[in-house]
Amino acid sequence: MPRALLLIPTTSYRAQAFLEAARRLSVEITVGSDEPNVLSASNPSGYLMISKVDISETITAVRQFHQNYLLDAIIGVDDQSVVLAARISEALSLPHNSVASVSAARNKHIMRERFKQAGVPQPLYDLFSIDNDLNVIAARITYPCVVKPLTLSASRGVIRANNEAEFIAAFQRVMKIVQMPDIAKDDSMQKLLVEEYISGTEVAVEGLLSKGKLRVLAIFDKPDSLEGPFFEETIYVTPSRLPMDNQRKIAVCVQQATKALGLEEGPIHAELRINEQGFWVLEIAARSIGGYCSRSIRCTNGREQVSLEELILRQALGMETYSFQREPQAAGVMMMPIPRAGVLQEVNGLQSAKGVSHIEDVIISIPIGQQVVPLPEGSRYLGFIFARAHRPNDVEKALREAHAQLQFEVK
Questions:
Q1: Region of 130 on the Ramachandran plot (φ > 0 left; ψ -120 to 50 alpha; else beta)
Q2: Closest by alpha carbon to 273, among 366, 202, 336, 362?
Q3: Residue ending a domain, choose from 173, 196, 219
Q4: Do 19 and 76 fall into the same domain?
Q5: What does the pLDDT look like over 209-236, one tens digit per residue?
Q6: Are residues 87 and 147 in the same domain?
Q7: For residue 152, what are the domain limits?
Protein backbone atom coordinates (compact mmCIF):
# COMPACT_ATOMS: atom_id res chain seq x y z
CA MET A 1 0.00 0.00 0.00
CA PRO A 2 1.52 3.40 -0.98
CA ARG A 3 2.32 5.91 1.78
CA ALA A 4 2.57 9.70 1.67
CA LEU A 5 4.03 12.03 4.28
CA LEU A 6 1.72 15.03 4.67
CA LEU A 7 3.44 18.13 6.07
CA ILE A 8 0.65 20.20 7.51
CA PRO A 9 0.49 23.02 10.08
CA THR A 10 -1.62 22.43 13.19
CA THR A 11 -3.83 25.41 12.27
CA SER A 12 -4.71 24.04 8.82
CA TYR A 13 -8.26 23.01 7.88
CA ARG A 14 -6.99 20.53 5.26
CA ALA A 15 -5.88 17.48 7.28
CA GLN A 16 -9.29 15.79 7.36
CA ALA A 17 -9.85 16.28 3.64
CA PHE A 18 -6.51 14.63 2.83
CA LEU A 19 -7.19 11.76 5.24
CA GLU A 20 -10.60 11.14 3.63
CA ALA A 21 -9.02 11.21 0.17
CA ALA A 22 -6.34 8.75 1.29
CA ARG A 23 -8.97 6.39 2.67
CA ARG A 24 -10.79 6.39 -0.69
CA LEU A 25 -7.54 5.58 -2.47
CA SER A 26 -6.33 2.99 0.08
CA VAL A 27 -3.26 5.14 0.69
CA GLU A 28 -1.48 5.31 4.03
CA ILE A 29 -0.95 8.82 5.35
CA THR A 30 1.69 9.90 7.85
CA VAL A 31 1.03 13.37 9.26
CA GLY A 32 4.20 15.37 9.84
CA SER A 33 3.80 18.22 12.30
CA ASP A 34 5.89 20.29 14.68
CA GLU A 35 3.31 19.68 17.41
CA PRO A 36 3.17 16.39 19.40
CA ASN A 37 0.18 14.10 18.93
CA VAL A 38 -1.25 12.09 21.83
CA LEU A 39 -1.97 9.14 19.50
CA SER A 40 1.57 8.88 18.10
CA ALA A 41 2.65 6.19 20.57
CA SER A 42 -0.24 3.89 19.62
CA ASN A 43 0.10 4.66 15.89
CA PRO A 44 3.83 5.19 15.18
CA SER A 45 3.39 5.06 11.41
CA GLY A 46 0.61 7.68 11.45
CA TYR A 47 2.47 10.62 12.99
CA LEU A 48 5.95 12.06 12.73
CA MET A 49 7.35 14.94 14.74
CA ILE A 50 9.29 17.33 12.54
CA SER A 51 11.19 20.53 13.16
CA LYS A 52 10.61 23.47 10.85
CA VAL A 53 13.65 25.17 12.35
CA ASP A 54 16.31 22.43 12.22
CA ILE A 55 16.07 21.10 8.65
CA SER A 56 18.94 18.64 9.00
CA GLU A 57 17.32 17.15 12.10
CA THR A 58 14.04 16.77 10.24
CA ILE A 59 15.66 15.10 7.23
CA THR A 60 17.45 12.65 9.55
CA ALA A 61 14.17 11.84 11.32
CA VAL A 62 12.37 11.26 8.00
CA ARG A 63 15.22 9.09 6.70
CA GLN A 64 14.93 6.87 9.77
CA PHE A 65 11.14 6.75 9.41
CA HIS A 66 11.54 5.90 5.71
CA GLN A 67 13.60 2.83 6.62
CA ASN A 68 10.72 1.42 8.67
CA TYR A 69 7.74 2.77 6.70
CA LEU A 70 8.54 3.30 3.05
CA LEU A 71 7.42 6.71 1.80
CA ASP A 72 6.32 7.20 -1.81
CA ALA A 73 5.62 10.93 -1.74
CA ILE A 74 6.08 14.03 0.43
CA ILE A 75 3.29 16.61 0.22
CA GLY A 76 3.47 20.12 1.65
CA VAL A 77 0.19 21.94 2.18
CA ASP A 78 1.18 25.55 2.94
CA ASP A 79 3.89 27.94 1.75
CA GLN A 80 6.37 26.94 4.44
CA SER A 81 5.87 23.20 4.23
CA VAL A 82 6.27 22.99 0.43
CA VAL A 83 9.89 24.13 0.79
CA LEU A 84 10.48 21.53 3.49
CA ALA A 85 8.75 18.89 1.34
CA ALA A 86 11.13 19.68 -1.53
CA ARG A 87 14.16 19.35 0.74
CA ILE A 88 13.01 16.01 2.15
CA SER A 89 12.04 14.67 -1.28
CA GLU A 90 15.47 15.63 -2.61
CA ALA A 91 17.15 13.80 0.28
CA LEU A 92 15.05 10.66 -0.33
CA SER A 93 15.28 10.87 -4.16
CA LEU A 94 11.50 11.12 -4.50
CA PRO A 95 9.76 13.08 -7.31
CA HIS A 96 9.66 16.74 -6.36
CA ASN A 97 10.00 20.36 -7.36
CA SER A 98 13.51 21.69 -6.91
CA VAL A 99 14.21 23.50 -3.65
CA ALA A 100 15.19 26.57 -5.68
CA SER A 101 11.85 26.66 -7.53
CA VAL A 102 9.61 26.41 -4.46
CA SER A 103 11.84 28.87 -2.58
CA ALA A 104 11.41 31.32 -5.47
CA ALA A 105 7.64 30.86 -5.35
CA ARG A 106 7.70 31.58 -1.63
CA ASN A 107 9.81 34.76 -1.78
CA LYS A 108 7.99 37.47 -3.71
CA HIS A 109 11.14 39.39 -4.67
CA ILE A 110 12.92 36.30 -6.03
CA MET A 111 9.70 35.50 -7.88
CA ARG A 112 9.66 38.95 -9.46
CA GLU A 113 13.32 38.58 -10.50
CA ARG A 114 12.63 35.21 -12.14
CA PHE A 115 9.59 36.63 -13.95
CA LYS A 116 11.64 39.61 -15.15
CA GLN A 117 14.33 37.34 -16.59
CA ALA A 118 11.72 35.24 -18.40
CA GLY A 119 9.65 38.17 -19.68
CA VAL A 120 6.55 37.26 -17.68
CA PRO A 121 4.15 40.26 -17.60
CA GLN A 122 4.09 41.63 -14.06
CA PRO A 123 4.01 44.90 -12.09
CA LEU A 124 7.09 47.10 -11.88
CA TYR A 125 8.74 46.60 -8.49
CA ASP A 126 11.59 47.49 -6.15
CA LEU A 127 12.95 46.16 -2.88
CA PHE A 128 13.58 48.34 0.16
CA SER A 129 15.10 47.74 3.57
CA ILE A 130 13.87 48.92 6.94
CA ASP A 131 17.10 50.94 7.07
CA ASN A 132 16.26 52.99 3.98
CA ASP A 133 15.17 56.61 4.32
CA LEU A 134 11.40 56.45 3.74
CA ASN A 135 11.17 60.13 2.80
CA VAL A 136 13.69 59.64 0.00
CA ILE A 137 11.90 56.51 -1.26
CA ALA A 138 8.47 58.16 -1.04
CA ALA A 139 9.65 61.09 -3.18
CA ARG A 140 10.91 58.92 -6.05
CA ILE A 141 8.44 56.03 -6.45
CA THR A 142 5.33 56.13 -8.66
CA TYR A 143 1.79 56.10 -7.23
CA PRO A 144 -0.44 54.29 -6.65
CA CYS A 145 1.78 51.50 -5.34
CA VAL A 146 1.42 48.40 -3.18
CA VAL A 147 3.62 47.61 -0.17
CA LYS A 148 3.91 43.93 0.75
CA PRO A 149 6.01 41.52 2.84
CA LEU A 150 8.17 39.00 0.99
CA THR A 151 6.76 35.77 2.37
CA LEU A 152 3.29 36.22 3.92
CA SER A 153 0.14 34.94 2.18
CA ALA A 154 -3.62 35.60 2.04
CA SER A 155 -3.04 39.36 1.53
CA ARG A 156 -1.67 39.73 5.05
CA GLY A 157 0.40 42.89 5.29
CA VAL A 158 -0.48 44.06 1.76
CA ILE A 159 -1.39 47.77 1.62
CA ARG A 160 -2.03 50.20 -1.23
CA ALA A 161 -0.64 53.73 -1.02
CA ASN A 162 -1.76 56.61 -3.24
CA ASN A 163 0.72 59.29 -2.19
CA GLU A 164 3.89 59.90 -0.18
CA ALA A 165 2.20 60.18 3.21
CA GLU A 166 0.20 56.98 2.67
CA PHE A 167 3.34 55.18 1.51
CA ILE A 168 5.32 56.08 4.64
CA ALA A 169 2.41 55.05 6.88
CA ALA A 170 1.92 51.79 4.95
CA PHE A 171 5.61 50.89 5.03
CA GLN A 172 5.82 51.48 8.77
CA ARG A 173 2.63 49.50 9.38
CA VAL A 174 3.81 46.51 7.34
CA MET A 175 7.14 46.50 9.17
CA LYS A 176 5.21 46.18 12.44
CA ILE A 177 3.12 43.34 10.98
CA VAL A 178 6.15 41.23 10.02
CA GLN A 179 7.40 41.54 13.59
CA MET A 180 4.21 40.07 15.06
CA PRO A 181 4.81 37.06 17.37
CA ASP A 182 3.10 34.45 15.17
CA ILE A 183 5.32 35.14 12.16
CA ALA A 184 8.54 33.17 11.73
CA LYS A 185 11.50 35.53 11.70
CA ASP A 186 14.19 35.41 9.03
CA ASP A 187 16.25 37.82 6.93
CA SER A 188 13.39 38.35 4.48
CA MET A 189 11.49 40.23 7.17
CA GLN A 190 14.05 43.04 7.03
CA LYS A 191 12.91 44.08 3.55
CA LEU A 192 9.62 44.92 1.84
CA LEU A 193 8.53 44.81 -1.78
CA VAL A 194 6.98 47.91 -3.35
CA GLU A 195 5.05 47.24 -6.54
CA GLU A 196 3.19 49.23 -9.16
CA TYR A 197 -0.55 48.98 -8.54
CA ILE A 198 -2.24 47.12 -11.40
CA SER A 199 -5.91 47.97 -11.88
CA GLY A 200 -8.41 45.63 -13.46
CA THR A 201 -10.26 42.34 -13.02
CA GLU A 202 -8.63 39.76 -10.76
CA VAL A 203 -8.81 35.99 -11.15
CA ALA A 204 -7.33 32.98 -9.37
CA VAL A 205 -6.12 29.84 -11.13
CA GLU A 206 -5.89 26.38 -9.65
CA GLY A 207 -3.79 23.86 -11.52
CA LEU A 208 -1.62 20.76 -11.45
CA LEU A 209 1.85 20.45 -12.93
CA SER A 210 3.22 17.20 -14.32
CA LYS A 211 6.75 17.23 -15.77
CA GLY A 212 6.39 20.98 -16.13
CA LYS A 213 3.14 20.90 -18.13
CA LEU A 214 0.28 22.85 -16.58
CA ARG A 215 -3.22 21.47 -16.38
CA VAL A 216 -5.73 24.14 -15.37
CA LEU A 217 -8.35 22.73 -13.01
CA ALA A 218 -10.31 25.93 -12.43
CA ILE A 219 -10.25 29.65 -13.15
CA PHE A 220 -12.05 31.59 -10.43
CA ASP A 221 -13.67 34.97 -10.98
CA LYS A 222 -13.31 37.41 -8.10
CA PRO A 223 -16.36 39.61 -8.62
CA ASP A 224 -15.73 41.95 -5.68
CA SER A 225 -13.51 44.95 -6.32
CA LEU A 226 -10.01 44.58 -4.88
CA GLU A 227 -8.74 48.15 -5.04
CA GLY A 228 -7.33 48.59 -1.53
CA PRO A 229 -6.15 50.00 0.72
CA PHE A 230 -6.28 46.36 1.89
CA PHE A 231 -6.95 43.36 -0.32
CA GLU A 232 -9.31 41.13 1.59
CA GLU A 233 -10.63 38.44 -0.72
CA THR A 234 -14.26 37.45 -0.48
CA ILE A 235 -15.99 35.62 -3.36
CA TYR A 236 -14.50 33.02 -5.74
CA VAL A 237 -16.74 31.63 -8.51
CA THR A 238 -15.93 29.01 -11.16
CA PRO A 239 -16.21 28.47 -14.08
CA SER A 240 -15.03 31.92 -15.07
CA ARG A 241 -17.40 34.14 -16.98
CA LEU A 242 -14.54 35.69 -18.96
CA PRO A 243 -14.43 35.08 -22.73
CA MET A 244 -12.76 31.78 -23.64
CA ASP A 245 -9.98 33.62 -25.47
CA ASN A 246 -9.13 35.42 -22.23
CA GLN A 247 -9.18 32.14 -20.32
CA ARG A 248 -6.74 30.60 -22.81
CA LYS A 249 -4.43 33.60 -22.43
CA ILE A 250 -4.61 33.25 -18.63
CA ALA A 251 -3.52 29.61 -18.90
CA VAL A 252 -0.62 30.57 -21.19
CA CYS A 253 0.45 33.29 -18.74
CA VAL A 254 0.41 30.90 -15.77
CA GLN A 255 2.34 28.25 -17.71
CA GLN A 256 4.97 30.86 -18.59
CA ALA A 257 5.21 31.89 -14.93
CA THR A 258 5.58 28.34 -13.58
CA LYS A 259 8.29 27.66 -16.16
CA ALA A 260 10.11 30.85 -15.12
CA LEU A 261 10.16 29.63 -11.53
CA GLY A 262 11.27 26.14 -12.52
CA LEU A 263 8.24 24.41 -11.02
CA GLU A 264 7.66 20.92 -12.41
CA GLU A 265 5.33 18.88 -10.21
CA GLY A 266 2.21 19.23 -8.08
CA PRO A 267 -0.43 21.86 -7.38
CA ILE A 268 -0.14 25.57 -8.07
CA HIS A 269 -2.32 28.52 -7.10
CA ALA A 270 -1.98 31.70 -9.16
CA GLU A 271 -3.35 35.24 -8.97
CA LEU A 272 -3.60 37.47 -12.06
CA ARG A 273 -5.08 40.82 -13.08
CA ILE A 274 -6.52 41.64 -16.47
CA ASN A 275 -6.93 45.11 -17.96
CA GLU A 276 -6.75 46.83 -21.35
CA GLN A 277 -2.95 46.61 -21.29
CA GLY A 278 -2.89 42.83 -20.90
CA PHE A 279 -2.61 39.95 -18.44
CA TRP A 280 -0.46 40.46 -15.36
CA VAL A 281 0.83 37.77 -13.02
CA LEU A 282 0.60 38.90 -9.40
CA GLU A 283 1.76 35.73 -7.66
CA ILE A 284 2.25 31.97 -8.07
CA ALA A 285 2.25 29.62 -5.07
CA ALA A 286 3.62 26.08 -5.27
CA ARG A 287 0.63 24.73 -3.34
CA SER A 288 -3.10 24.36 -3.71
CA ILE A 289 -5.76 26.85 -2.67
CA GLY A 290 -5.86 27.52 1.07
CA GLY A 291 -8.32 26.94 3.87
CA TYR A 292 -11.67 25.28 3.22
CA CYS A 293 -11.73 26.81 -0.27
CA SER A 294 -10.67 23.54 -1.88
CA ARG A 295 -14.27 22.33 -1.37
CA SER A 296 -15.25 24.52 -4.31
CA ILE A 297 -13.30 22.24 -6.67
CA ARG A 298 -14.74 18.82 -7.46
CA CYS A 299 -13.76 16.68 -10.43
CA THR A 300 -15.39 13.69 -12.09
CA ASN A 301 -14.56 11.06 -14.69
CA GLY A 302 -18.25 10.28 -15.28
CA ARG A 303 -18.26 7.38 -12.81
CA GLU A 304 -16.91 8.87 -9.60
CA GLN A 305 -16.41 12.27 -8.08
CA VAL A 306 -13.17 13.28 -6.37
CA SER A 307 -11.92 16.16 -4.26
CA LEU A 308 -8.96 18.41 -5.01
CA GLU A 309 -7.06 16.63 -2.23
CA GLU A 310 -7.62 13.28 -3.94
CA LEU A 311 -6.31 14.65 -7.23
CA ILE A 312 -3.21 15.96 -5.45
CA LEU A 313 -2.61 12.58 -3.84
CA ARG A 314 -3.18 10.74 -7.11
CA GLN A 315 -0.72 12.97 -8.95
CA ALA A 316 1.93 12.76 -6.20
CA LEU A 317 1.74 8.97 -6.18
CA GLY A 318 1.86 8.58 -9.95
CA MET A 319 -1.79 7.58 -10.31
CA GLU A 320 -3.98 8.53 -13.26
CA THR A 321 -5.60 11.98 -13.04
CA TYR A 322 -6.31 13.13 -16.62
CA SER A 323 -9.68 11.38 -16.92
CA PHE A 324 -10.97 13.65 -14.14
CA GLN A 325 -12.37 17.01 -15.21
CA ARG A 326 -14.01 19.77 -13.19
CA GLU A 327 -17.67 19.03 -12.49
CA PRO A 328 -20.31 20.51 -14.85
CA GLN A 329 -21.94 22.60 -12.11
CA ALA A 330 -20.81 26.08 -11.20
CA ALA A 331 -19.39 26.43 -7.70
CA GLY A 332 -18.14 29.12 -5.40
CA VAL A 333 -16.96 30.06 -1.95
CA MET A 334 -17.16 33.22 0.09
CA MET A 335 -14.47 33.91 2.65
CA MET A 336 -16.30 35.92 5.27
CA PRO A 337 -14.39 39.08 6.18
CA ILE A 338 -13.83 40.25 9.74
CA PRO A 339 -15.72 43.56 10.21
CA ARG A 340 -13.54 44.88 13.06
CA ALA A 341 -11.05 43.80 15.70
CA GLY A 342 -12.29 42.41 19.00
CA VAL A 343 -13.71 39.25 20.51
CA LEU A 344 -16.33 37.28 18.59
CA GLN A 345 -19.33 37.25 20.92
CA GLU A 346 -22.14 35.78 18.82
CA VAL A 347 -23.15 34.71 15.32
CA ASN A 348 -26.80 35.05 14.35
CA GLY A 349 -28.67 33.98 11.21
CA LEU A 350 -26.69 30.81 10.59
CA GLN A 351 -29.74 28.64 9.81
CA SER A 352 -31.23 31.32 7.57
CA ALA A 353 -27.97 31.52 5.64
CA LYS A 354 -27.87 27.74 5.22
CA GLY A 355 -31.46 27.82 3.95
CA VAL A 356 -30.69 30.09 0.99
CA SER A 357 -31.22 28.33 -2.33
CA HIS A 358 -28.04 26.72 -3.78
CA ILE A 359 -26.12 27.05 -0.51
CA GLU A 360 -24.34 23.82 0.42
CA ASP A 361 -22.78 24.77 3.72
CA VAL A 362 -21.84 27.64 6.01
CA ILE A 363 -18.85 27.16 8.30
CA ILE A 364 -17.86 29.51 11.11
CA SER A 365 -14.16 28.77 11.53
CA ILE A 366 -13.37 31.04 14.51
CA PRO A 367 -14.88 29.89 17.82
CA ILE A 368 -17.09 32.17 19.90
CA GLY A 369 -15.01 33.95 22.53
CA GLN A 370 -11.88 34.11 20.39
CA GLN A 371 -10.05 37.25 19.32
CA VAL A 372 -10.58 38.28 15.70
CA VAL A 373 -8.23 40.55 13.76
CA PRO A 374 -9.04 42.01 10.32
CA LEU A 375 -6.55 42.58 7.51
CA PRO A 376 -3.87 43.71 7.09
CA GLU A 377 -2.73 42.45 10.51
CA GLY A 378 -5.00 39.39 10.58
CA SER A 379 -4.55 36.08 8.81
CA ARG A 380 -7.91 34.34 9.26
CA TYR A 381 -11.47 34.68 8.01
CA LEU A 382 -14.62 34.40 10.13
CA GLY A 383 -15.71 31.44 8.04
CA PHE A 384 -16.69 30.13 4.64
CA ILE A 385 -19.91 29.89 2.61
CA PHE A 386 -20.22 27.32 -0.20
CA ALA A 387 -22.67 27.26 -3.10
CA ARG A 388 -23.34 25.20 -6.23
CA ALA A 389 -25.77 25.87 -9.07
CA HIS A 390 -26.11 25.47 -12.82
CA ARG A 391 -24.86 28.99 -13.52
CA PRO A 392 -22.02 31.08 -12.02
CA ASN A 393 -24.38 34.07 -11.61
CA ASP A 394 -26.68 31.98 -9.40
CA VAL A 395 -23.70 30.89 -7.29
CA GLU A 396 -22.58 34.47 -6.74
CA LYS A 397 -26.12 35.59 -5.91
CA ALA A 398 -26.55 32.77 -3.38
CA LEU A 399 -23.27 33.56 -1.64
CA ARG A 400 -24.21 37.21 -1.27
CA GLU A 401 -27.72 36.41 -0.01
CA ALA A 402 -26.41 33.91 2.53
CA HIS A 403 -23.81 36.34 3.84
CA ALA A 404 -26.50 39.02 4.20
CA GLN A 405 -28.36 36.71 6.62
CA LEU A 406 -25.43 36.60 9.05
CA GLN A 407 -24.85 39.03 11.88
CA PHE A 408 -21.53 38.96 13.76
CA GLU A 409 -21.28 40.55 17.18
CA VAL A 410 -17.67 41.57 17.80
CA LYS A 411 -16.71 43.54 20.91
A1: alpha
A2: 202
A3: 196
A4: yes
A5: 999 999 999 999 999 999 999 999 999 9
A6: no
A7: 124-196
